[in-house]
Amino acid sequence: xxxxxxxxxxxxxxxxLFYGTDYNSHLGTKRGxxxxxxxxxxxxxxxxxxxxxxxxxxxxxxELDKFKGNAxxxxxxxxxxxxxxxxxxxxxxxxxxxxxIVNLEEIEAELLSKNMHFAELSSGNTNQTELISLLIIQxxxxxxxxxxxxxxxxxxxxxxxxxxxxxxxxxxxKWGRTPIVxxxxxxxxxxxxxxxxxxxxxxxxxxxLGPGEIVRMTADGVEQLRKPEEKMQICSFxxxxxxxxxxxxxxxxxxxxxxxxxxxxxxxxxxxxxCACGIPDSGVGMALGYAEGKGVPYHRAISKYTPTWPRSxxxxxxxxxxxxxxMKLIPNRAMLKDKRVLFxxxxxxxxxxxxxxxxxxxxxxxxxxxxxxxxxxxxxACPFVGFTASKSPLELITRRIIAELEGDPDKNLEKYxxxxxPEYEKMVSIIAERFGLTSLKFNTLExxxxxxxxxxxxxxxHCFDGSSCF
Length: 470
Ligand code: SF4
Known about the structure:
- The chain is of the alpha+beta class and 470 residues long.
- It is built from 16 helices and 23 strands.
- It is globular, with a radius of gyration of 23 Å.
């Protein structure tokens, strides 16, 4: 997915920019980048590093001296190298995006046919942030250009632009699929994907940008350039999986939502278990809620080796993902032996990690293994936010089972997506059987949406029920 941070201050922005961007590290694993604008020298400074083998702070801390100025933007990117800096009839500007462009090839062909060109081909493909900047400069001003992006891009796109007047323009995706939160403190404003960037940098949440809203930030305040749209489709998976526990979107805190969904599930679950445990990190909040709702103790029967696996690191290659998943979690025989353990996890995508985890739990003495999942089964691939874990529907365990049962992975999807239908029950029982689970239950869509606390029509739930605004 990716996450960004931008700040504009009366004094140097560099420290806040460095840490604020770093606090988005759980959202991407490919590239990190920073850009600042020094108004005295009239110069941009930029740096981009590969994050596939190490962390953002390690890569950037030795070169912070090169960044100067009161305004800057930073990105943890799951896709292309960013920020891009371009010179145009709108002036020079740096841009970072959190985007997924489904129709990239179509837009690219159109821009090339208009004699435009792409220069940022370092990763071998067209850089989607560069493509977005080319769409922007087709406008007579930034707002018109960003509206052009909103009109043309299928998928999603939120962005921050650092312009040479020293201000930052923040524009949230037109359907609000990805968030932007504005923070303020004495002498500075900031915009970020994750509000967990704010507390340690002393920012207070000022506002949540609405879908399609565009604002200009200076050190003195925030000016609205475009009103938000009424309709919203914020990604519900932000609360389930992507988000850091202390983050809030639309005023709803990630940990609270996870806790509430676990609580509700625990209150109505008839299973007999000795304890509830969470698969670190995203299953922990739900497990704490489940334990309270069910009236059983919360135990840490698996711990994450935090000294060297401090964040949710998801490499793009399957073998590496499996190795990382195995290495970072350590089972605890003392807490597992002869117990009926119930584990909460965020979701099941391919099922590979769950299968490996369950095998280890039995090997370490668990008598029964029950699994509870924070969301409904993932039936549809995500076309909107670059959910890297499910590039193709056929990678989903649900679709592979549907293919086996129906002879066609696309058949009767609505039935399999309906909790309690015979097809749904069959699919869930096959997953449980394949992994040797004593029991397996997924949260219902209603409970998840209730825990999020927004009206269903404002939340994207496409990957669970196929609903869509297009
Ligand atoms: S399809 Fe799923 S992952 Fe994609 S935006 Fe919607 S809820 Fe989020």
